[in-house]
Design brief:
- The protein has 121 residues and is mainly α.
- The chain has a domain of 84 residues.
- The protein contains six helices and no strands.
- It starts with 12 loop residues before the first helix and ends in a 9-residue tail after the last helix.
């Protein structure tokens, strides 16, 4: 077993609160959850690199918001957003999160629609 080290990082307050709830419900610690997820990420990335497969790196770049969906789909040789979402799920990676300002603009556009317009009525 390898030695452990302490490190300092930062995490969104709400995310940490939710992680604590999951840890409590799972009778474990946030540290154990973090280590399991980080280990999965590192081992999957290393296995893909060893196999000279850039697909996981592409999915990780998409997850981190470094590339957009069209760039990711082109690099992966797929033509469907649905296939991209399935690959993200299989890779155990979260979908990228839009900046709050972009999300708010989308909400504003939807709120400005006439009643029933969003349902085609």
């Amino acid at each position: 077993m390898s030695a452990t080290v302490n490190f300092t990082g930062s995490v969104d307050r709400d995310l940490l609160r939710r992680a604590k709830v999951i840890a409590a419900k799972s009778d474990t610690s946030v540290n154990a959850l973090f280590n399991a997820e980080l280990r999965y990420l590192v081992e999957t990335f290393e296995a893909a690199e060893t196999a000279s497969n850039q697909n996981f790196r592409t999915l990780l770049d998409f997850s981190l918001g470094r590339i957009d969906d069209l760039t990711a789909m082109t690099a992966l040789g797929i033509d469907s957003s649905e296939d991209l979402f399935l690959l993200m799920a299989q890779a155990h990676l979260p979908m990228p999160r839009l900046p709050d300002s972009v999300t708010q603009k989308m909400v504003d556009v939807l709120n400005a629609l006439p009643p029933g317009a969003a349902h085609g009525g």
